[in-house]
TrEMBL record:
Family label: In the C-terminal section; belongs to the AIR carboxylase family. Class I subfamily.
Parent sequence residues shown: 450 to 630 of 639
Coiled-coil region(s): none
Organism classification: Eukaryota, Viridiplantae, Streptophyta, Embryophyta, Tracheophyta
Protein name: phosphoribosylaminoimidazole carboxylase
Organism domain of life: Eukaryota
Amino acid sequence: YVKNNLRSMLDGETTESHVSDTPQVSIIMGSDSDLPTMKDAAEIFRNFHVPFEMTIVSAHRTPERMYSFALSAKERGIRIIIAGAGGAAHLPGMVASLTPLPVIGVPIRTSSLDGFDSLLSIVQMPKGIPVATVAIGNAANAALLAIRILATSDDELWERVKNYQEELKDTVLKKAEKLEG
Ligand code: RP5
């Protein structure tokens, strides 16, 4: 079901190879209204050639689906879960309570409270059930953190992360040179 959702959610944006490889990472979100934020994570995984899946799982609207998703993730080959949610953002924490897999939470910016509600809901986990929380709306960093974790046991990916950091550095240095004239 995840592959089909991925295809329809990305409207053909993704490539077949990422869909057919066994996904290592799962990107889930509470609503399709979170997709404009969460698609940044998908883009990062595509750039780093990390197979991923992406779908909607709502802690409040589809609690049974959240259970089956979390309980089956490890046996499906998933190694890290990225969960985006907004408002009363219980999805990342609840998923982390259902599986030992590492969970990275993405607080979605909200219209009423600018995402502070999402941030606090995700970051304030009780001792024993960790959720790594990135900045409000920063799904790209969630993907990059997941990639760094995967890269500790994947030499090719490790090299790609190092190259990415070099590229970031070069970009800044070029801007500095330009500014200095
Ligand atoms: C959360 O409620 C979702 O993660 C979303 O950020 C928020 C609003 O959802 P919609 O009402 O837009 O579907 O569960």
